[in-house]
Amino acid sequence: MTDTPPPEETPKATPEQPVQKPGGGGGGRGGGRGGGGRNNAPLPQKLEGGRPAQMRKRHYGLLVSFFLVVLLPSIAAGWYLNTRAADQYASTLGFTVRSEDISSAVDILGGLGSTLGGGSGAQDSDILYEFMRSQQLVQNIDAKLDLRTIFTKERDPDWLLSFDPDGTIEDLTRYWQRMVRISYDAGSGLMEIRVLAFTPDDAKEIAEEIFIENSAIINELSAIARADATRYANEDLELAVERLKQTRETLTTFRLENQIVDPNADIQAQMGLLTTLQAQQAEALIDFDLLADIARDGDPRLEQAQRRIDVIETRINAERNKFGVAGQGPGGVQFATIIADFERLTVDREFAEAAYAASLSARDAAVAEANRQSRYLATYIQPTLAQKSEYPQRIVLVAIIALFSFLLWSIISLIYYSLRDRR
Asked: Looking at the domain covering 88-237+369-386, what would its CATH class be?
């Protein structure tokens, strides 16, 4: 006899769970798949036994950490910025470095233009950018305006945003870099400075002193360049003067030793003497020929005329020998040697005089350019006087603090849950 399995009991319906038929009925399209369709998913609102979901310790810890990491810093920052933080006023200053193009005026005199007027505005702006962040500028302005007093709130202390008057110069320099914000465009050379202070007048006064100090630095750089160019021109002029003095002294010594002032004048005198002797010789020859036609042999007049002719010829030969190799000039020196030395000394003197004139012109041009300001600061924004406080930007600061606090809290929460899931 075959055993028949007992019939399956139909589950009873309960208030928490609907009755399901075997095979997963549900009547719709999902009834034949997976046995049970959508009605098989557990309800998230309630757990076993019908109790609702409850918060655990980790949930409370998450809320507490959110309050400590996000809400508390944001509330503290908002309270401090709105109740304790002192108002800060801004003064804006804008300028650029300008250079004059003066090279064309002095290039003819030796190329001094590249030294005097060339200058690179971009390099000067880079120097000023670093100078405005330096300790030297802070010391200079502190000596004039007493920055420690300006940056200290005595009546209503702001212990976070104000400066401690007992701080060192290094502390003051770091605080200066917070209160003085520099915007510099290296391409155009434009520089804009925003100075913060607790009163509008202090901010404007600091901006004005910054401009004065930067102008002094630019003038000093220009003065150094011009002084170098002037010094070189003066050195060249001194060398030219010394060379001219030496050549003139040498020429004077030559004249004293040879007892001659101007060999050219002496040559002209000698040539005039030769011309006169030659004319007398010609006249004597004519007289001798005329006398020979009417006089008899042995006439003493013929002998006297011949002697006169001989004497003139002897004198002509003696004067001509002065210009020869063995000819003796004044002082017993060969006349040709005297002429050669004199011409050499004359050329040296003329060259020294030309060099002296060129050096003197170059020195005069350098001195003239030294009296001009080739580089200067051109302001396109004068120091402004604030009418209302724009700093600190309270809403922006609170929003930034809240954002970063939330990001920090999120990262810590993710790290915690990732480590928890690994266990």
From this structure: alpha beta
